């Protein structure tokens, strides 16, 4: 799980969720991926070529496609203030213009270990394991580090 905070926003990447305070904002598809790239860059410039490579791999698209999706994203982020959250560097790329904070980060192995602990906590094999329990044990056996 990777969650970022910037300005009044929270971006939960795995859940593909953007919120302003407690209000969920509708951002999907390419605008969401653009925001993800900008936030992951943490204020560093993201070149137009990076967007093209990430959003449209093996496809040639016009620069206008990126411009339209950035415009859609800006509208979603708009809060009525004069302070834009996305800065344009003419003919070069874009950057997020407010500080970005990593709020939560969980690696895949940590998430798998947590899931295995949860599943294992429900297994009682003292009087024999059910088929589901044996399947769960087999599925997790040898794939995870020892649970402490």
SSE layout and pairing:
Blueprint: E1 2-6, E2 9-12, E3 17-20, E4 23-25, H1 29-41, E5 46-47, H2 48-55, H3 63-77, E6 86-89, E7 93-96, E8 100-105, H4 108-120, H5 131-140
Antiparallel strand pairs: 1-2, 1-8, 2-3, 3-4, 5-7, 6-7
Helix pairs in contact: 1-3
Overall description:
The protein is α+β, with helices and mostly antiparallel strands. It has two domains: 2-104, Winged helix-like DNA-binding domain superfamily/Winged helix DNA-binding domain (Arc Repressor Mutant, subunit A, Orthogonal Bundle); 108-140, no CATH class. The chain is 40% helix and 22% strand. The protein has five helices and eight strands, in the order ββββαβααβββαα. The protein has helices at 29-41, 48-55, 63-77, 108-120, 131-140; strands at residues 2-6, 9-12, 17-20, 23-25, 46-47, 86-89, 93-96, 100-105. The strands form two sheets. A five-stranded antiparallel beta sheet has the order 4-3-2-1-8, with helices on one face. A three-stranded antiparallel beta sheet has the order 5-7-6. The two termini are 21 Å apart.
**Topology as H/E string?**
EEEEHEHHEEEHH
In the CATH scheme, the class of the largest domain would be Mainly Alpha
Mean pLDDT: 81
Secondary-structure-derived class: alpha+beta
CA-based gyration radius: 21 Å
The total count of strands amounts to 8
- The helicity comes to 25-40%
Secondary structure tally, helices:
5
- Largest sheet, spatial ordering of strands: 4-3-2-1-8
Examine the coordinates and then state which fold CATH places here, giving the name of the CATH topology of the largest domain: Arc Repressor Mutant, subunit A
Shape: globular
Amino- and carboxy-terminal Cα gap: 21 Å
Report strand %: 15-25%
């Amino acid at each position: 799980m990777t969650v970022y905070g910037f300005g009044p926003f929270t971006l939960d990447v795995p859940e593909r969720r953007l919120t302003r305070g407690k209000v969920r904002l509708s951002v999907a598809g390419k605008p969401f991926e653009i925001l993800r790239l900008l936030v992951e860059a943490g204020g560093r410039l993201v070149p137009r070529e990076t967007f093209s490579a990430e959003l449209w791999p093996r496809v040639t698209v016009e620069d206008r496609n990126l411009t339209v999706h950035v415009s859609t994203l800006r509208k979603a982020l708009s809060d009525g203030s004069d302070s834009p959250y996305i800065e344009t560097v003419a003919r070069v790329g874009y950057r997020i213009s407010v500080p970005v904070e990593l709020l939560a980060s969980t690696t895949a192995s940590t998430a798998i270990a947590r899931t295995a602990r949860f599943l294992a906590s429900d297994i009682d094999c003292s009087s024999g394991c059910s088929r589901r329990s044996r399947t769960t044990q087999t599925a997790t056996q040898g794939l995870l580090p020892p649970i402490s």
